[in-house]
Design brief:
Elements lengths: L1 E2 L5 E5 L4 H10 L6 E5 L5 H11 L4 E5 L2 E5 L7 E2 L1 H4 L9 H8 L1 E5 L12 H9 L3 E5 L2 E5 L7 E3 L5 H11 L5 E5 L5 H12 L3 E3 L5 E5 L9 E2 L4 H13 L3 E5 L7 H9 L3 E5 L2 E5 L9 E3 L10 H9 L4 E6 L9 H6 L3 E5 L2 E5 L8 E3 L3 H13 L3 E5 L2 H4 L5 H7 L3 E2 L8
Parallel strand pairs: 2-15, 3-14, 6-7, 10-11, 18-19, 22-23
Antiparallel strand pairs: 1-23, 1-24, 3-5, 4-5, 7-9, 8-9, 11-13, 12-13, 15-17, 16-17, 19-21, 20-21
Helix pairs in contact: 1-2, 1-7, 4-6, 5-6, 6-7, 8-10, 8-12, 10-12
The protein binds ligand EPZ.
Ligand EPZ binds next to helix 1, helix 5, helix 6 and helix 12.
């Protein structure tokens, strides 16, 4: 329940990155031993990954924001549909399982709120490393006595496929070359963690990775990078409410595209060390964005940007070049009085004077973030339903927003 109209003010700390953590946890499977991940966000998706890895024999404990993983007793090399259907990132176990245990049975992810979101690049990559891969009964079944280094070119730059193949290649015989690799900060963080485990990887941070396989890896500890999407969401919250907010524990260089667009919209943004401060303008200017691969504007900020543009002083176009139909938030924004029209993979947003509170339904993680942002500026009360979506990727969002002066509270609601 959100009563809008309060300018956000104050300082809030950004949590560790969901999409980094979801890659680091399966990567630990590559070596037997104990690992400690500091700055781990307490999120629903981290819980889902934990229960999947526990079902394989891993011991996992989250104390505060320190995650301890024990990978010495992994006996089951399978990711069942029951787990994978809850979270696509579960497919990240494929590479580590085949690399360390020579076999894997991983459910295909199935449908998503938007998509299609295939995993053909993951499968082709593992196949190129010499594994036999069958698709049977909705499962990917892979076997390899030992993976062999290979040259792999991705037609599409994929975060997940880059991560999966890179993890698998660390224990392969010989050298693997990945061309058109993804360079998202979460992939760079994963590569650096693998190197800390003893892997040999060149070209980190570039779209050409060279991985020289080793016999074995060893445990390592790490601190998870800040969540650039959570940070971007809070900066938009400050902008849309006409507020002034400082984020701490954030890496501004991971946010450069978002910050540039916020400045184009009239915001004043200051980056000092691990803090980013935003001062909102009197009026938000309309600014077009096209969501693209890193370092472009992130698709995971597209819905939040659409909401900001819904109250801008003019018309803008928000295009998504990664996911063509990631616009499930639009009909809900229209329920709040927004004037948005979707044409193919773009939303034409005609800014309006005000939004008015109503009941709205979350459909996925980032769509729910965009509806909460709309509620913060809408007149009256907005009721955002199905908030379990938001808990997948935002740690205690209502507590953080409340600490900045938002009138927001969580209520037990009807199950739909
Ligand atoms: C990661 O998903 C993120 N998830 C997503 O964030 C994010 O939207 C996405 O990258 C893009 O930045 C995690 O890191 C857990 P991709 P991923 O493989 O790895 C196509 C959030 O809100 N593709 O880079 O699944 C695909 O269809 C989530 O936190 C293939 O065609 O994304 C898409 O168009 C949502 N075949 C494009 O590549 C494949 O085998 C990029 O997808 C794989 C991908």
């Amino acid at each position: 329940m959100i009563r809008g109209g309060k300018p956000l003010k104050g300082t809030v700390a950004v949590s560790g990155a969901k999409n980094a953590t979801l890659a680091l946890m399966p990567a630990a499977m590559l070596a037997p031993g104990t690992f400690h991940f500091a700055n781990t966000p307490a999120l629903r998706d981290v819980g889902t990954m934990s229960s999947l890895l526990r079902s394989m024999g891993m011991r996992i404990e989250l104390k505060g924001n320190v995650l301890t993983l024990d990978t010495k007793r992994i006996t089951k090399h399978e990711a069942p549909y029951e787990h994978v259907k809850k979270m696509r990132a579960s497919v990240y176990v494929l590479g580590p399982l085949v690399a360390r245990f020579g076999e894997a049975k991983v459910s295909l992810p199935g449908g998503c709120a938007w998509g299609p979101r295939p995993v053909n690049l993951h499968i082709e990559g593992i196949r190129k490393l010499g594994a036999t891969v069958e698709l049977e009964g909705g499962y990917i079944i892979a076997h390899a006595a030992r993976l062999q280094g290979a040259r792999i070119h991705f037609d599409v730059s994929s975060v997940g496929a880059t991560g999966n193949v890179m993890m698998a290649a660390t224990l392969a015989q010989g050298t693997t070359l990945i061309d058109n690799a993804a360079i998202e900060p979460e992939i760079t963080a994963l590569a650096e963690f693998l190197v800390a485990m003893g892997a040999r990887i060149d070209g980190i941070g570039t779209n050409r990775l060279e991985i020289e396989g080793v016999e074995t890896l060893h445990p390592a500890d790490c601190t998870t990078i800040p969540d650039r999407i959570e940070a971007g969401t809070f900066l938009v919250a400050a902008a849309i409410t006409g507020g002034s907010v400082t984020l701490t524990s954030v890496n501004a260089s991971h946010l450069s595209a978002v910050i540039a667009k916020l400045e184009d919209a009239g915001c004043t943004v200051r980056c000092e060390g691990a803090t980013v401060s935003l001062e909102a303008p009197g009026t938000i200017r309309p600014v077009d964005v096209t969501a693209a691969i890193y370092p472009g504007f992130p698709t995971d900020m597209q819905a939040q940007w659409t909401t900001l543009m819904a109250v801008a002083s003019g018309t803008s176009v928000v295009t998504d070049s990664i996911y063509f139909d990631r616009f499930k938030h639009v009909p809900e924004l229209v329920r709040l009085g927004a004037d948005v029209e979707v044409k193919e993979n773009a939303a034409v947003v005609r800014g309006v004077e005000r939004l008015t509170g109503a009941k709205v339904m979350s459909t996925d993680l980032r769509a729910s973030a965009s509806l909460i942002l709309a509620g913060l500026v809408a007149e009256g009360t907005t009721e955002v339903l199905r908030v379990y979506h938001i808990d997948r990727g935002y740690e205690a969002i209502e507590k953080k927003l409340h600490s900045l002066g938002a009138d927001i509270r969580r209520e037990a609601g009807e199950e739909f």
